[in-house]
Amino acid sequence: MKFKDFGFDARLQEGIESTGYENATPIQEQVIPQILAGKDIIAAAQTGTGKTAAFLLPVINMLLTSHQEEHHINALIIVPTRELAIQIAQNMEGLSYFTGLSSMAVFGGGDGIVFSNEKKALSHGADVVICTPGRMIAHLQMGYVKLDGLKYLILDEADRMLDMGFNDDIMKIISYLPKKRQTLCFSATMPSAMRSLAHKILDHPVEINVALSKPPEKIIQEAFVVYDAQKIGLVKYLLKSKDFKSVIVFCSTKDNVKQLSRDLKRANFSIEEIHSDLDQETRERVLRRFKNKELKVLVATDILSRGIDIEDIDLVINYDVPHDGEDYVHRIGRTARAETDGIAYTLINEKEQKKFGDIEQLLGKTITKGNVPEQFGPTPIYNPLLKPKFTGKKRFNTKNIKR
Ligand code: AMP
Predict the structure, then answer these.
(1) Superfamily of domain 219-400
(2) Which of 3, 49, 302 to mutate to test the pocket of ligand 1 (most atoms within 8 A of CB)?
(3) What is the mean pLDDT of residues 37-55?
C-alpha cells in the first residue's frame, strides 16, 4: 500500500516523501487506519518493522487536522532508553518537517543546564514529547508540565520498560493524564505483566500482531560489502563459483533487472529477466523455462519474491538490499525449500548499509560478511550505524527539536 492512499495532510505527505518512504510496511498498513479511527492499540512489533512511523504518522496527521491547545503537550511518547528517545525524535523531525509541529526529547543524564532547558521547553509546551519515565517524573513533580490537554499517549518497547522496572513510573505518569485520551502500546513480546498493564491503561484495544517469519535455519546466508560499481562483476563471479543449477537474482528496480540481465547475457550466462514491464504471456513463458531448468538464472524484481513455488533453487542473490526484513525473508525463502539446502548472498553498497543493519536487527543476528576476492580491489568498511546521505528535497535542521 502506498502512503498516498492514507490520504494524509499534504504537509505530512511532503515529509514522508522527503524521508524516502513510498510503501507502508505490514505493521503500518495494519496499525495506521486503526489509529486514525481513534482506536486504542496494543501491537506486537519488533524494531525494524517500521513501528515508529506506524504511530508517528497517524498522530502527526491527527494533530494537524484537529484543534490543539497552545502551551500544552498534545502527545506523549514514553520509551525505555535515551537512545530510543533520540531515534524517535529524529524520525519525528524528518516526518513533521513541513508541518510546523514542535517536538522535543526529554531523557535522563546531562547536567543542570540541560534540565533547566527541558524545564523551559516543557513549560512552554510542545505538540509531541518523547521521554524516558524517570526524567519525566522529575519534571512532573515540579508542577510546570501541562498534561491536562493531552490527547495521545504512546508506550514504545513497553515490555522492555517493564523489564527495567518502570511499571510504577509509568502508572505515575499516567495519573497526570486525562482519562479521555487515545493510548497506543507497542511491545516486541506479550508477557503476562504486559497484558495486565495493557488492561489497566487501554480502552477496548485493537490487538495487532505482525510476526516476522524467520528464514529457515538451513539457508546459508552471506553478505558482501562492496561499491556499487563492483556489484555486476561480483554477481558474475558468484554465479561461476560453484556449479549452481538454478539461481534467482533479485533487484529492487526494473532498471537494475534490465541492466544486469543485459550484462549477464553478454557474458553468455543462461539467463532471462522477469518484471512487470513484460506482458503476462512472456512472464509465464520465462517462468516455465526456469521451472523446467531450461534456464539457469532468472533476474527478477520482487514480483517473484512471494508465494511462487519453484523447487530446487540452490542460490538466491540479492543484487540490491531488499526494502525491509519481510522482503528479505521472502526473497531468500525461495531457496532451501522442503528438503533442499540453499545459499543466499546479499550485495551491500555504501548507501544500503543502514538498511541491511536494520534487517540484521530484525532477524536478531549478524549475517556473515564474505571476503570479496582481491581482483575486485578495495571495498568499503561495513558500518551500518552511519546514516546514509540524505537525498530528499531539503536538508533537515533541528528547528523542531527543542533541546
Ligand atoms: P523502526 O521499526 O521504526 O525502528 O524502523 C526501522 C527502519 O525502517 C527505520 O530506519 C525507518 O526509517 C525505516 N522505515 C520505516 N517505515 C518505512 C517505510 N514505510 N519505508 C521505508 N523505510 C521505512
Answers:
(1) P-loop containing nucleotide triphosphate hydrolases (3.40.50.300)
(2) 49
(3) 89
